[in-house]
Design a protein that fits this description.
With 404 residues, the protein is an alpha/beta fold. The protein folds into 2 domains: 316 residues, Metallo-dependent phosphatases (Purple Acid Phosphatase, chain A, domain 2, 4-Layer Sandwich); 68 residues, Arc Repressor Mutant, subunit A (Orthogonal Bundle). 26% of the residues lie in helices and 21% in strands. It contains 11 helices and 16 strands. The strands form 3 sheets. Strands 1, 2, 3, 10, 11, 12 and 13 form a 7-stranded mixed beta sheet that branches. Helix 2 links the parallel strand 2 and strand 3. Helix 9 crosses helix 11. The longest helix is centred in the N-terminal third of the chain and has 18 residues. The chain starts with 16 loop residues before the first strand and ends with a strand. The N terminus is likely disordered.
């Protein structure tokens, strides 16, 4: 049977809850001489990665797994790679996570042979506990590995598998057709009971053009990868990637249940000027609770929290305008014009008074799962078509509505 003939698995009978903390693109450096690359200077205490475990513990953040989409160190520096991996273990302990799952980034691979070893991944293969997860043999042999646990499934994919091939490969990610075929077989064998599915990779599987209209660093073959994960053939999917340092959440092209694509911020890289005017360093907590999402007839829907780091202030909840907001959701795909009309009708029915958050959620219980990109569009439609202002809290969620 080809994967085109696969049917979407039925919902599991047992609800699934998964909390994944995403810490991406650390770009750790060994000393202050490299400070121009990253704030994560392992020779200095109180850098963003050193302080993150304490901050998360104080905030009482809990996670089941820590995900790192790559670039532990800047330019594959050996000692900095080891330090960053050790810090991720400390972060996992601080949030109560029982495992770290990572993948290699282009800066993790010594593709230019700065170190004496002939294997450009030696720095990674020598890490303890094993990188990118406890059982790493499949990852190094086949460019991917699969973790299955209590109704959820995570694939970690090495989009840098071919970075030692030639100069062009340094500049982009890749997934070969043979790897997609292997992944299809692995997913077919494990589809039963996998209600929450995450694919972790470094490179973005589709062009990321917010700051670079001519983006050429996307994963070659990424469109075929997204197609494999589309249309419910292997359940529904969230893709988490790094590399761009631009926090963003969107839906992949394809069907109405195409993969959700979560572009993680860099936790600590020194952002270049054009990027620093748009976003900040962030980490994210993604949460799935299928008991709650099933109650409002949604499948792969979830929420997220984001925290921002700034020099002098340290870590804090992310405000709107810093990348991803401090709180948000995803998975509720809706005709925004219809939703705006329903809100406007309710506004009129109640005498055009302020509609507060509880009333809006009573009108549409799936609002907590609306993606930030759709929330911005909803604001504009309400303003332009109905003369209604949609109020937002400083950290992202809807606060109320008033007449404009």
């Amino acid at each position: 049977m080809s994967h085109d003939d696969k049917a979407e698995p039925a919902d599991g009978s047992t609800p699934v809850r998964l909390r994944a903390l995403v810490v991406s693109d650390i770009h750790a450096v060994p000393d202050s001489k490299s400070k121009q690359a990253s704030w994560a200077d392992m020779s200095v205490r109180k850098n963003p990665i050193d302080t993150l475990p304490g901050f998360l513990a104080e905030e009482k953040v809990k996670a089941d797994v820590v995900l790192c989409p790559g670039d532990l160190a800047h330019q594959a520096h050996g000692a900095a790679t080891t330090w960053a991996w050790e810090q991720l273990q400390k972060i996992a302990k601080a949030v109560g996570a029982d495992r770290v799952i990572a993948t290699a980034g282009n800066h993790d691979v010594d593709s230019r042979h700065m170190e004496p070893s002939l294997d450009p991944c030696d720095n990674l293969k020598e890490l303890q506990p094993p990188f990118p997860l406890e059982s790493a043999n499949d990852y190094w042999a086949n460019s991917m590995s699969l973790v299955i646990h209590d109704g959820w499934r995570i694939v970690t994919l090495n989009s840098c598998f071919h970075h030692n091939a030639n100069e062009q490969e340094h500049r982009q990610g890749r997934i070969e057709h043979s790897a997609i075929t292997k992944l299809n077989k692995q997913l077919s064998a494990t589809d039963a009971g996998a209600e929450v599915n995450i694919l972790l990779c470094h490179h973005h599987p589709m062009p990321h053009t917010e700051l670079d209209p001519n983006d050429r660093s996307a994963m070659v073959g990424g469109d075929h990868l997204l197609d494999l994960l589309d249309r419910g053939r292997h359940g529904r999917w969230l893709v988490v990637h790094g590399h761009k340092h631009f926090p963003w959440l969107s839906y992949a092209p394809g069907s109405s249940i195409s993969p959700i694509v979560f572009s993680a911020a860099s936790a600590s890289v020194l952002l270049y000027p054009a990027l620093s005017t748009q976003v900040r360093n962030q980490v994210h907590l993604i949460e799935f609770d299928t008991a709650r999402s099933r109650a409002v007839n949604l499948h792969l829907a979830g929420t997220f929290e984001s925290w921002m780091w700034s020099a002098g202030d340290g870590w804090a909840p992310a405000p709107v305008g810093s990348g991803l907001p401090g709180q948000g959701g995803f998975g509720f795909r809706v005709d925004l014009a219809d939703l705006a009309r329903r809100i406007a009708d309710e506004h009129t029915r109640l005498g055009k008074r302020v509609l507060h958050t509880p009333e809006l959620h009573a009108l549409e219980p799936r609002l907590e799962y609306i993606a930030p990109i759709d929330l911005v569009a909803l604001e504009k439609i309400l303003q332009c078509n109905h003369g209604i202002r949609l109020g937002r809290m400083s950290n992202g969620p809807i606060a109320d509505t008033t007449t404009a």
